[in-house]
Specification:
The complex is a heterodimer of chains A (253) and B (264). With 253 residues, chain A is an alpha/beta fold. Chain A has a domain at 1-77 and 194-253: P-loop containing nucleotide triphosphate hydrolases (Rossmann fold, 3-Layer(aba) Sandwich), CATH 3.40.50.300. Chain A has nine helices and ten strands. Chain A has helices at residues 47-55, 94-98, 100-104, 110-122, 138-150, 168-184, 196-202, 231-236, 238-252, and strands at residues 5-16, 19-31, 36-40, 62-67, 70-71, 79-82, 156-160, 188-192, 205-209, 216-221. In chain A, helix 7 (196-202) crosses helix 9. Chain A is globular and about 50 Å long. By secondary structure, chain B is an all-alpha fold. Chain B has two domains: 2-47; 60-262, MetI-like fold, CATH 1.10.3720. In chain B, 84% of the residues lie in helices and 0% in strands. Chain B contains twelve helices and no strands. Chain B has helices at residues 7-43, 49-52, 55-67, 70-102, 104-119, 126-133, 137-161, 165-173, 178-189, 191-215, 221-230, 234-262. The longest helix of chain B is centred in the N-terminal third of the chain and has 37 residues, at 7-43. Chain B is flat, with a radius of gyration of 24 Å. Chain B starts with 6 loop residues before the first helix and ends with a helix. The chains are: A alpha/beta (253), B mainly alpha (264). The A-B interface holds A 55, 57, 78-79, 81, 83-85, 87, 89-92, 100-101, 103-105, 132, 148, 152 and B 164, 166-167, 169-176, 180, 184-185, 188-189, 191, 264.
Amino acid sequence: MIPKLEVRGLSYSYHTMDGETQALSDISFSVAAGEFIAVVGPSGCGKSTLLSLISGLLQPDEGSVLIDGIPINDNPCTIGYMLQKDHLFEWRSILGNASLGLEIQHRLDERHLRMVHDLMETYGLKHFEKSRPSELSGGMRQRAALIRTLALEPDLLLLDEPFSALDYQTRLSVCDDISTIIRDSKKTAVLITHDLSEAVSVADRIIILSRRPGRIKKILPVIFQEDSAGPLARRNDPAFTSYFNEVWSVLQN
Amino acid sequence: MKSQETLAQQEFVRLQQRRYRTVLICRILLLFFLLALWEISARLELIDDFIFSSPTRIALCFAEMLQDGSIIRHTAVTLAETLISFCLVIVLGLSGAVLLWSSKTISEILEPYLVMLNSLPKSALAPILIVWLGNNIKTIIVAAVSVAVFGSVLTLHNGFSSVDPDQIKLIRSLGGTRRDILTKVLLPGSIPLIISNMKVNIGLCLVGVIIGEFLAANQGLGYLIIYGSQVFKMDMVVMSIVILCVVSAVLYQGIAYLEKRTAL
């Protein structure tokens, strides 16, 4: 079976006048359809670079990225990208922000607009469609950003520390919220995070990267008793601590 | 809501309102005091009102020129020239900034020239412009545009370059082109900057128009000032300056109103 996402021998270096910095070296892994992958690693190990490469925003020095077996640059599939901050534009209403991607891709027709309205309703933003981003709480803003991403019906979701700008309490509930939404819609997702407990609480597998240049140290499958358990339930599971300790010890040596 | 306000809140509001009133009354009193001082000094012949003019002489001069309609024509000419050059500055400033943003290489090539042109005293150009373009409105408009346009390009380009790179990454991740980045992020995000830049430019355009009219005009407030001083009609000179004050205040307030309208 062809994996949803396949990364083969990816390497990337940044060039400045002061010299060359190798960010990633020989990264290979594959992700099955509907799988939720978390990538952890020390800061500056090239986690965000990895996402930029997968999304095709950067071109790798070596290696290739395949989606459904087709190279990313020849593939018309859409990739949803969620960034650290929500980057909702203050000069647009929440609805205008949520439909920004559709507008850019000239797909803002009746059907898609209906879908954005439905997503708004599902995620409790129905009454805020006409509001400005500054009128919403951090969690609501992050949900609006997720709708902006989901409205494009992406084949693959890339999440670049999407919860790290939120305060701890909001972060737990938004993480629970959003990962449940992603699981229920059966999307394939790659989450980058520096929060180990977040990785353990949402992922099916955790990819652990080394210090720069980033290499894969270990790919750790995470299996909990009840498969449907959400992140908050997982945090209460006895297996949670042992997974956390395992990730921690791999990162340490 | 009024009934729910606490006494302390009412007291605070009352004090604030009283302060606003005091400021307004003192402003008006200061104006009348200065006008009265000027008038009385002229009447008592402490100053020579032939050279220093006086409020009544200015008013008389204004009434006289209002009757033959000439002051309206001169003011309208200056106003029209200012607005034309202002619009040109906005268009040229924005397109220049977009051009610099569209290519890092072009912006690096042009930057030293723009910085030099921006700091060059534009009044030095006026005599050359007369020779090149003639003794007409073209010279005045070009002079006014040259005063404001280079600074405008630099300021706007600087604003474009300081947009959060993650906002640009967002547009690219949604499949947007450079054109989308421009129309969805840079321009709407720069509206406050564009308006504050307009506030500066409207004043600079007026400066440029007056420089132009000093040298190459037979109508307009700048022409009146030069003509008046040459034939020693100081009433006309001072009156023109007073009208200029009013014109610049009105133009500035117009932009301030626009700013309020676009504020989020």
